[in-house]
Task: inverse folding
């Protein structure tokens, strides 16, 4: 559906357009560096999820931290409260 895949922003921009949202109003939850870069390039808010079973072996949390996501969580149960803080700012 898009010409370029991640880390280009095309997939996220397409999704926002199809749903009728401005990209700046979107929050993307990603567990990969390429996906996080893609969402950031689309100028969307980003939540990096470092709690998957693959994360520890790949030292994923440290890698995602270097990309400065808006939110970094290890447990999806923490997402609602973390996302609410973004809207308060």
Result:
């Amino acid at each position: 559906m898009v010409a370029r895949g991640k880390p280009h922003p095309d997939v996220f921009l397409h999704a926002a357009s199809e749903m009728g949202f401005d990209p700046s109003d979107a929050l993307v939850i990603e567990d990969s560096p390429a996906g996080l870069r893609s969402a950031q390039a689309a100028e969307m808010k980003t939540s990096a999820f470092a709690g998957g079973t693959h994360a520890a072996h790949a030292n994923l949390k440290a890698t995602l931290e270097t990309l400065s996501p808006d939110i970094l969580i290890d447990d999806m149960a923490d997402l609602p409260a973390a996302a609410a803080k973004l809207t308060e700012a």
Q: What stands out?
A: The chain is about 45% helix and 15% strand. The chain has one domain: 10-88.
